[in-house]
Amino acid sequence: MRAVRRTAPAVAATALIVAGLSGCLGKDDSGSKGGAATGGGAVRGGVTVASGDKPVAKATFPSPIAAGATVDIAILELKAGGRLADLTVSMTPHVPANGATQRITPYRLNGETTLGVFLIDTVNLKRYLVVKDSSGHELQTDYVTTNIANDQPGQLSFTFAAPPKGVDRIDVQIGNWPIFRDVPIAR
Fold it and tell me: pTM of this prediction?
């Protein structure tokens, strides 16, 4: 418990730094509506509500997996229940034929670096990390070994501590891509 208290100021400072740096990350070039990027390299949560296949936010970003490659990222749902919140994400890679010979994984789509999925609570100045089970394993899809077919959506899930009631929207960081802003939390 003490370690958590000691790290709270560092986590809050990190959240502020991440939020401040998000303006340097890029922008959505997809031209799509309902999840299109706004100025400063952030992606706004869409007006639509998660119901089946409709994402609450979506955007298309370049991917370093191959020259000319892109990835469509859609937040399908962020649902809080009890003390946990489950984030469901879809990734659809679009890798040109010359780069599609290698396995396509979220790890490779992100430039072979840690995917780093976080919830950023701008109300309470907290950053939520994926929770771990009693064995120390993170409760998330294994993004290093999960294969995604080219031009086909692949679904990933991540579990976090639930933000407190009263926080009905939160920012979501996925990989090296711009932050999705104001993603609604279903309760």
Answer: 0.72
